[in-house]
Amino acid sequence: MIAVSYHSSSGVAGLVGLYRRVIKLPEHVPFSLVQLAARVAVAHVFWQSAQSKIASWPVTLQLFENEYNLPLIDPSIAAPLATAAEIAGSVLIFFGLFSRLAALMLLGVVSVIQIFVYPENWAEHLLWASLLLLVLTRGAGIFSLDYIAERNLSASAR
């Protein structure tokens, strides 16, 4: 009978083990940090958009009248509605208050932009939608007012 050794060199096994440990390091990042980063990033996008609309309201109205071409809604109504949605949505998402509702509202804004305004910018819109879907489906995380409110409601129910 012949004995066959299946041991690989300790150097290769050591590298494989190191690789496996390194690959698993991101799993130790708290998911709430990912949620917070998503909220801050998407809030920034919509806050900046709203601020640029407010900074030059006549230009904003011209854009809604001549470039954006939204069907079924007058530009003089669409401009303030879009601006209000961006301000309210970005503030709520940032603080993590009514986050899922805010994410849903901003997903509506992204959908309108994608379908009617700038369909060629789909990659950017997909990025925003992905961040908003994360908040919609998983919530705002522990670094949010939603979490604090939920804890207080749970404590008072006991």
Give the helices and strands, then pairings.
Blueprint (H helix, E strand, L loop, with lengths): L9 H15 L6 H25 L1 H10 L8 H21 L3 H19 L4 H17 L6 H13 L1
Helix pairs in contact: 2-4, 2-6, 3-4, 4-5, 5-6
Describe this structure in words.
The protein has 158 residues and is mainly alpha-helical. The protein has one domain. The chain has seven helices and no strands. α3 crosses α4 and α5 runs antiparallel to α6. It is flat. The model has no long low-confidence stretch (mean pLDDT 93).
- Overall geometry: flat
- H/I helix tally: 7
Backbone CA Rg: 24 Å
Class by SSE composition: mainly alpha
Largest sheet data:
none
- Report how far apart the termini are: 71 Å
Number of strands: 0
Number of domains: 1
Helix content: over 70%
Which percent band covers the strand fraction?
under 5%
Given as residue ranges, the uncertain stretches (5+ residues, pLDDT < 50) are: none
The sequence of SSEs as H and E is: HHHHHHH
Mean pLDDT, as a whole number? Answer: 93
